[in-house]
Amino acid sequence: MERRSFIKTALSAAGAAALGSTGLNAGTTRQPIDNREISEVAFPEKRPMITYSDRPPLLESTRDVFAYPITPNDQFFVRWHMPDIPTKIDPKNYTIHINGLVNKELHITLDELKNNFEQVEVTAVLQCGGNSRSAFQPTAGGIQWGSGAMGCAKWKGVRLSDLLDRAGLKKEAAWIGFNGQDNAAYYKTPNFVRELHLDELDDHVIVAYEMNGEDLPYLNGYPVRLVIPGYYSDSWVKMLSNITVTDKYKSLFFMDVAYRVPDNECECETPENRAKTTKPITKMNVKSVIGYPSNNSKLNHDSQVVIRGVAFDSGHGIREVLISLDEGKTWENAILDDGGQGRYGFRSFRFGFKPTKYGKMTIMSKAINNIGHEQPFAKDIKWNHGGYKYNGIDEITVEVV
Amino acid sequence: MNMKHTMKKLLLAAMIVSTPLFAQVKEDVAVPYIAFPIKMGKGFDTVQANCLTCHSFGYMINQGKQSREFWEEKVNKMIHAFKADLISQEDAKIITDYLFEQYGNGKLK
């Protein structure tokens, strides 16, 4: 893939910004755009990252963080929907309200959350449904993410089921709505609310206040967020403040319009012929990303190179990761870590080799999960207009010198 | 507010585990302003007057090159779904024209 710099250093002190542009070769899916440069400007609690927007904040991680099974908090991607996020949170008075079809309304402070319930931990991948969207041709609508709209962290908090048990669900309870603290600029704009059916909520869903042993970063939803292992991040409501139990599904913009894919076998459509019906994106498909080497880097001839990366899916777990050094003709097994992060986390892989031919070469990684699902080649990914759920075999190009 | 950084590619030698902080940011959080390199052109004033109420220019220029219909739908989404109904029909057309001219792919659909 052609190397492009998407950054033009702005003349102002504010620094750099990503400039999206894509070539148009109709009807194909390719590797997502990579090697975008990081901004000169750092956001609160973050190192400088690839920056698509400051309002709302949209920040992407660079490929190199995926050489490791845990993504550092200060390099973890950020995606908000609303322009106004509270710029001050008072942890002493922050309250999570549980109401609706419950026997007892609850107003839980952070302190109570940390002390009055069983504390649990889960390591889970948080990935935007539009991660890698820039792979879709013609350009799919939305931010043209590379592969860095994802990360893996160890989350600590309280089971949602414990909170709901404490409130006591009435028998007609069926839907749980989650509302965060970010606000629209206009009073009438629909809030970013997610609703999940009770059947979708198992014991792995937690209300988390800690990420990798620290408070959640402000931009990742301080002080508490929903963690739904295996699901795309649009359901992981940030700055969670309200949990409302209902018996009927409420029509909501972000549930009915955004974050949806065609409701057919291939979840696909063509630009000319859009699918009539759609469904929410929900569970993640199997995917792998190479963290090292990076695209368009140089490797020394005859040196001992260790390729590293991560693989994950919706919670079935990763069975194998295969590496190809000959453009997908032959594949060899990478060595997987012991799976200690559990089935929802990144499973890291490594593969040692010695480049013996001078010149350009490609390195590909393909993950296969425990139920036999494997990543397709990028070119075999079917198009959808939202640019969701890309999971093509990852590919980088390096030069052996 | 903005510290200028020059950034070198950092290699993570090790994951540093720090003690949990009780809210790492103690005062109001300041999200930096970034001057995105927006293209000047016919209708830009209208874009500036209407769009920045809710989002940065970055949000617009990072959508990729798109068809006229795409941009029209986006502007309509802002008005109807996001209730930015202060945008007049007239301005909506000016904004759509601008977006298609500057960030279009040359296709109507």
Automatic annotation (TrEMBL), chain A:
Residues 280-384 form the Moybdenum cofactor oxidoreductase dimerisation domain. Residues 85-250 form the Oxidoreductase molybdopterin-binding domain. Pfam families: Mo-co_dimer, Oxidored_molyb. The keyword Signal applies. The keyword Electron transport does not apply. Residues 1-26 form the signal peptide. Gene3D superfamilies: 2.60.40.650, Oxidoreductase, molybdopterin-binding domain. It comes from the Bacteria. Keywords: Metal-binding, Molybdenum, Oxidoreductase, Signal. SUPFAM superfamilies: E set domains, Oxidoreductase molybdopterin-binding domain. Its cofactor is Mo-molybdopterin. This is Molybdopterin-dependent oxidoreductase.
TrEMBL record, chain B:
Keywords: Signal. SUPFAM superfamilies: Cytochrome c. The keyword Signal applies. Residues 1-23 form the signal peptide. The keyword Signal applies. InterPro entries: Cyt_c-like_dom_sf. This is Sulfite:cytochrome C oxidoreductase subunit B. It comes from Sulfurovum zhangzhouensis.
